[in-house]
Amino acid sequence: MSSDTSSGGMARWTPWAHGYAATPVITMRRGLEIRVAADRLGQVPGDHARGMTLVEVMVAVLILTVSVYLLSSTITAAIGHTRIKRERAIAVEAAMNLLERMRNERFDQLFASYNGVPDDDPGGVGTAPGSNFAVVGLDAWEDDEDALAGEVILPSSSAVLLEDVENRVLSMPRDLNADLMIDDEDHARDYVLLPVTVRVAWTGKGGNRSFEMSTMFAKLEKLDE
Predict the structure, then answer these.
(1) What ranges do the domains of the chain cover?
(2) Within 10 A of 48 (CB to CB), how many other CB atoms are there?
(3) 170/102 Cα distance (integer angstroms)
(4) 2-5 and 11-14 as β-strands: parallel, antiparallel, unpaired?
(5) 56 near 39, Cβ under 8 Å?
């Protein structure tokens, strides 16, 4: 058997011992062939695949980052909204409790007990609740002088109860002593109607916020049959 080599291939051989001449065959190594083709293109096999994988990873990371940001923003907004609702619920409950407490007190002492003057307090100077009150869980506005979030608003903050004052919140002026007249006299001792507004003003998650609840207290007398 004789053999020689061909450029770029394995040995070319002729099996003379078997009595025939085989057709010359050149067997190329597949790895060598691919390598040569890759070298001609100036890249190594697998680089293209790795480049696409890196791009896909970058896109996936970008999508994940955006998704996490949107999710965190949604959660933060939900938490903030929940806190705002909670603060408002506290304010509503405080206003309702204050009005209920006023309803259970003597009607003829309401004005003196909840105006802004301690001198006319029914039980002595400084013994009545006054016009301001604290609300547990809420902080008053920074510019609030008494640093109390709750306030009782009456037709007058002084010891004088007038009918002719302008106050849209309390629907004033109004006849308070049922004499069918609106005058400029003091009705702190003979009123039969008393409009009241309870305001809760606090600084919370949404900044400065406030809530108001109004009602009308009236003196009811049983008529003789």
Answers:
(1) 63-218
(2) 12
(3) 17
(4) antiparallel
(5) no
